[in-house]
């Protein structure tokens, strides 16, 4: 049986279609995904309810009272057929997140260093040297999935997730990295904490980070971290 060709449209119920553009996660996907978001907004207008971009797909949710599934699919097919990459994607906003890397707030920092054969300082340098791209938002409000982490820092999720991860905690899972916007459960390998406020109900759009944004984790001292409003309370590693 041969694989179905990409891109393709997949039904997501009576009010949604999933556009599957790519088979693999790659930063080169982003100009196409941001262009797809832009073109869908234009094509659906007031009939559009929501757009949920991810690493390789875009979920398009529409108002079934305004648009039939068949008409929605036709509009999407036209959009995909004429899709061109967004040249402005390379100029996406750069967000710098001041981050304190320390075992007291990043309990997996030393283990990650041992696993990779690097020193703790080298792990920090490797993680903070990359400009990451936000591929998707999900799991919790303002939680941005970013990639890709250097391969030698890649690490699977914890076998037993923590019941409580402090807001701002910076972690790695596989070749993804993220910062927890709110206190929540979580199973990522924690290596530090950012002072940035990632989710704010009084902020337009709520989330500091948006799909397509470029992100740098900027190492800071404990003093600078607390001066910026960061919580330096050490973690109790209870799972």
From TrEMBL:
PANTHER family: 5-OXOPROLINASE SUBUNIT B
Keywords: ATP-binding, Hydrolase, Nucleotide-binding
Phosphoprotein among keywords: no
Protein name: KipI family sensor histidine kinase inhibitor
Domain Carboxyltransferase: 7-209
NCBIfam families, A to Z: 5-oxoprolinase subunit PxpB
Originating organism: Halomonas stenophila
Superkingdom of origin organism: Bacteria
Molecular function via GO: ATP binding; hydrolase activity
Pfam families hit by this protein: CT_C_D
């Amino acid at each position: 049986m041969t694989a179905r060709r990409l891109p393709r449209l997949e039904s997501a119920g009576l009010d949604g279609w999933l556009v599957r553009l790519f088979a693999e996660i790659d930063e080169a996907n982003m100009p196409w995904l941001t262009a797809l978001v832009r073109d869908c907004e234009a094509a659906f207008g007031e009939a559009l309810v929501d757009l949920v971009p991810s690493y390789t797909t875009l979920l398009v949710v529409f108002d079934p009272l305004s648009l039939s599934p068949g008409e929605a699919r036709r509009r999407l097919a036209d959009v995909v057929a004429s899709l061109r990459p967004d040249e402005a994607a390379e100029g996406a906003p750069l967000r710098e997140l001041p981050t304190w890397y320390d075992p007291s707030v990043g309990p997996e920092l030393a283990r990650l260093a041992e696993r990779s054969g690097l020193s703790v300082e080298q792990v920090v340098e490797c993680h903070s040297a990359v400009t990451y791209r936000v591929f998707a938002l999900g799991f919790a409000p303002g939680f941005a999935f970013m990639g890709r982490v250097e391969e030698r820092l890649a690490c699977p999720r914890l076998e037993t997730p923590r019941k409580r991860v402090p807001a701002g905690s910076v972690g790695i899972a596989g070749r993804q990295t993220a910062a927890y916007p709110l206190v929540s459960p979580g199973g990522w390998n924690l290596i530090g904490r950012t002072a940035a406020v990632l989710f704010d109900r009084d902020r337009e759009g709520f989330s500091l980070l948006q799909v397509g944004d470029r992100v740098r984790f900027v190492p800071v001292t404990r003093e600078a971290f607390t001066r910026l409003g960061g919580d330096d309370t050490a973690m109790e590693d209870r799972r």
